[in-house]
Amino acid sequence: GAGVSQSPSNKVTEKGKDVELRCDPISGHTALYWYRQSLGQGLEFLIYFQGNSAPDKSGLPSDRFSAERTGGSVSTLTIQRTQQEDSAVYLCASSLGVAGGSTDTQYFGPGTRLTVL
Amino acid sequence: AQSVTQLGSHVSVSEGALVLLRCNYSSSVPPYLFWYVQYPNQGLQLLLKYTSAATLVKGINDFEAEFKKSETSFHLTKPSAHMSDAAEYFCAVSATGFQKLVFGTGTRLLVSP
After folding, report:
1. Between A48 and which of A56, A88, B7, B61 could a Cys-Cys bridge form, CB atoms 3.0 to 4.6 Å apart?
2. Chain B interface mutation, best of A90, A102, A108, highest count of B Cβ atoms under 10 Å
3. CA A29 centroid distance within chain
4. A34 vs chain B: nearest CA distance in angstroms?
5. Contacts of A100 in chain B (CB under 8 A)
6. What are A23-70's pLDDT values in tens digits?
């Protein structure tokens, strides 16, 4: 079946511009995660959505970052006023979101490579 | 708080040799531990996960890992390396009741003929 898809695969933007990154999770998965992978910081958790619960935003690095998930499916990560340090690969993952399931397997998309000039 | 430490940013082996990638964890609660592999320009793929059911966990492509509480380790092994195993490997931990993964810094596996 279809996996997690992300678009665009690559995004080049100028410093100060806003960008939107999209994630389409696996159908039926109620949990969705955003991570960032950069040379300096490795793989970092950004935000987590589970069903209709309030998202866990504890990993967002600044108030320039926000994310939403519409209709419990597609998610958009928005970065406002981009800075060069925002350059990274942004990975999305989804999982079934089994209640109480910390062992729930996260399936990752191919990522969006963001370059801020 | 949970964390993992991966010893060695690069590991080189010859084709057919044993693969050993090291991961030590720190957790205030019984952890859930994962190994993911990332091939160039691709996302992360789960190799195996420890969920307290069994200390020796078998994963895909003949990889396995053993949870050792006394050593706070979860090292990844494979008896015989293939060229196709060349990739970056990440150890990750998740705490009970939380879903976010905390990743190690990764180990790049190089396999030579």
Report:
1. A56
2. A102
3. 15
4. 9
5. 97
6. 999 998 989 999 999 987 789 999 999 888 889 999 999 999 999 998
Write the burial class of residue B25 (CB in 10 Å: 0-12 exposed, 13-18 middle, 19+ buried).
Answer: buried
CB B35 within 8 A of CB B23: yes
In this predicted structure, what is the pLDDT of residue B103? 94
Q: Are B74 and B67 in contact (CB under 8 A)?
A: yes
Least confident of A6-15, A81-90, B40-49, B82-91: B40-49
For B93, residues 6+ apart whose C-beta sits below 8 A from its C-beta are: B2, B3, B4, B25, B27, B31, B32, B33, B34, B101, B102
Distance from the Cα of A43 to chain B's closest Cα (Å) equals: 6
Measured between CB atoms, does A45 come within 8 Å of chain B?
yes
CA distance A114 to A111: 9
- Name the amino acid, one letter, at A43: L
Closest chain B residue by Cα to residue A104: B99
Please identify among residues 13-72 of chain B the ones whose CB lies closer than 8 Å to any CB of chain A.
32, 36, 41-46, 49, 51
CA distance A34 to A46: 5
